[in-house]
């Protein structure tokens, strides 16, 4: 009866722990990309730059349209000219405003020299003015159109920069995601190595008790076991680091309960290296952004804006205003007109044109440098991806060979032909090759992703889940 109670209690504790402990949240690669694109700071910054560029285009286009300004003013003054102007705008000027009441015709010509007090020394006077003004741009030497072209090119540059930032984020996510998978595979390899090391220690103690081996053989087995335990701890630390990196990229505050799904592997792009280089120069978002920046600096934009200072500017305006001594009693008036202005002499504009041309050359140099760098980068990525694939095949073959060699060593050891030191050396070699296979598979995924990134086509469509490819196939254990 007591045994049944203990069993029921044990089951209850297990169930309670399962309820209270957070369930592991397994995220596949698509889930991670979706989460990162929504809240990763790099993507938020790229989106903000695109939105800023869109605002600049709207502002530039707004300069083509008329501008209506409404204003209200209230003022008081005893300045002779200002007061007289207020009275005129209010249509309240009288002959006495000119000092007509002080003129004495009996004085003859001498009366004309009398200073009119109402005109020269007015008392304080106030005015309430309401004004609507319409400014109409007609032609400004191409400066407005050049500004629109410049802003539009910068918008396209920002959009390409957004694409580039998204692809770089996907690349970083793949490194972090497959890094977690590789770390888990390394843990499995280390656990298997630890199990083999523990079995060797147990066997060595039994053999030592029977006098078959010496004390130093047991010590060698125990040292090997300690090294296996240290390798397991290192693998677990690596997984914790990889999980933290992934959590930061997808915007999670902590790694508790975070697990990943199946490993992913980008497909290998089709075509020769020369074909891929041509595609990269046409499609790479970073190169496209630099080309748009060059367009923004060229004659249709940056240089055009600078040259506009040499050309006439034509604008029109119309306004309607009301001026009065109080609100609601203003006298209406209007003004319409046009203006042609031309800066005949301005020594600063030559320097502005030279500066704009220099910016064109600077952007052109940056573009050529980036294109040359992309060709080299793509060639390196293409060769590295091929080498990584070949390394995976080599390590898979090496694992099978090392497992078979270790099986034979164990048989030789059991028959007294092989020493324990040789057996442990063979097991260490097998553990090392298994770990190299895990790293090789991770490197293959990263190198392929780097190739797609250089092409400017790193997208989810080119990345597929791989079932059972990241964990080394285990044969005979040591």
Main sheet overview = 4 strands, antiparallel
Let me know the average pLDDT: 80
Biggest sheet strand line-up: 2-3-6-7
Percentage of β-strand residues? 5-15%
Number of helices: 12
How many runs of DSSP E, i.e. beta strands? Answer: 8
Q: Notable features of this structure?
A:
single chain, 478 residues, alpha+beta, 4-stranded antiparallel beta sheet, two-stranded parallel sheet, 12 helices, 64% helix, elongated, disordered C terminus
List the helices and strands and how they pair.
Blueprint: H1 2-20, E1 25-27, H2 29-39, H3 41-62, E2 67-77, H4 80-89, H5 117-120, E3 125-139, H6 143-209, H7 215-250, E4 258-260, E5 264-266, H8 273-283, H9 285-297, H10 299-307, E6 313-324, E7 331-341, H11 348-414, H12 420-455, E8 463-465
Parallel strand pairs: 1-4
Antiparallel strand pairs: 2-3, 3-6, 5-8, 6-7
Helix pairs in contact: 2-6, 3-6, 6-7, 6-9, 6-10, 6-12, 7-12, 8-11, 9-11, 10-11, 11-12
Walk me through the structure.
With about 475 residues, this protein is an alpha+beta fold. Helix content is about 65%, strand content about 15%. It has helices at about 1-20, 30-40, 40-60, 80-90, 115-120, 145-210, 215-250, 275-285, 285-295, 300-305, 350-415, 420-455; strands at about 25, 65-75, 125-140, 260, 265, 315-325, 330-340, 465. Strands 2-3-6-7 form a four-stranded antiparallel beta sheet. Strands 1-4 form a two-stranded parallel sheet. Helix 8 crosses helix 11 and helix 9 (about 285-295) packs antiparallel against helix 11. It is elongated and about 155 Å long. The protein starts with a helix and ends in a 13-residue tail after the last strand.
